[in-house]
Amino acid sequence: MVGNIVGHHKSPYRGSSVEFAEYRKYVPGDDPRLLDWRVLARTDRYFIREFEADTNLRCYIVVDCSESMSFGEKGMRKFDYARKIAATLSYMLSHQGDAVGLQLFDNGVAADIPPRRNPLHLKHIFDTLAKAKTQNETGLVQELHQFAERIRQRALVIIISDCFCDVDDLLNCFEHLHFQKHDFALFHLLDPLELDLDLDRPIRFQDMEGSDVLLAEPEIIREPYLEAVREYLVRIHEGCNKHNADYRRVSTDQPYDAILADFLVDREVLAKGRA
Amino acid sequence: MTFLNLSVLWGLPLILLPVLIHLFNRLRHRKLPWAAMMFLRMANRKSTRYAKVRQWLVLLFRVLAVLLLLFALSQPRLDGLPGWMFSDKPDVVVIVLDRSPSMDGRADGESRLEKSRELILKGMEGFAEGTRIALMDGSSTYVQEVGSVEALKNMMSGGVNDASSDLVAQLETVQKWFKTETPGNGEIWIASDLQESNWAASGDDWRRLTEGFKILPQKVRVRLLAMNEPLTSNHSVRVRELQLHGDGERAELQLEVEVLRDKSELTEIAVPVTIHLGTESRKLDVDFKLEGTSHTQFVKLSIDDPDQGGWGWVEIPDDDNSRDNRSYFVYGSHGSSSTAVTAEDSYMSRFLQMAAAPNPANTNQVSVAIPEASRVETEWSNHAMVLWQGALPEGDTAKALLAYADTGGMVVCFPGQIDSEIRFAGIRWGALKATQNEQGRDYPSWREMVAAQGEGEHLGPRVVSWEEGEGPLARTEEGYSLPMDSLYFSQRRSIEGDGIILASIARDSKPERKAEPLIVRKVRSKGQILFIGSAPSEQWSSLNFSIVLPIVLQRMVAAGAATDSGRFSSGNMMPVGDELSRPNERWISVGGEEGESRDFNTEAGIYRLGKRVVAVNRPEHEDLASLMDGDEAVALFGEMPVAFFQEKREGTAGDPKEIWQWFLALMAMALLVEGFLILPKSTDERVVVSRPTTGKVAAEVN
Question: Where is average pLDDT lowest: B83-87, B332-336, B582-586?
Answer without folding.
Answer: B83-87
